[in-house]
Amino acid sequence: MRLDAIATVLLLLVSNAQGAVTPQQAEALRGPLTPVGAERAGNAAGTIPPWTGGMSAETPHAESAAGGVVSGLFAGERPVLTIDHSNLAQHAAHLPDGVLALFDHFPDYSMRVFPTHRTAALPQAVYDAIARNAIRAHAAPSGIAYGVTGAAGGVPFPIPSNGAEIVWNHLLAFWGAAREDHVSTYVAPGDGTIEQTAGYRETTDFPFYAPGVKPESVGSYYFKTRRLQDAPPSRVGEGYIAWQPLDVAADRFVAWRYLPGEHRSRKAPSLSYDTPDPDASGYESLDEYYLFFGGQDRYGFRLLGKRELYIPYNNNRLALYPAREAMTPVHANQDALRYELHRVWVVEGTLAADKHDIVPRRRLYIDEDTWLAVYSEEWDEDGRLWKFGHATMMALPDVPVVFGGSQFMYDLIHGGYCYDFVLSPPGEYRVTGLHQPDIFSADAMAADSLR
Question: Is-contact 440 226, C-beta < 8 A?
Answer without folding.
Answer: yes
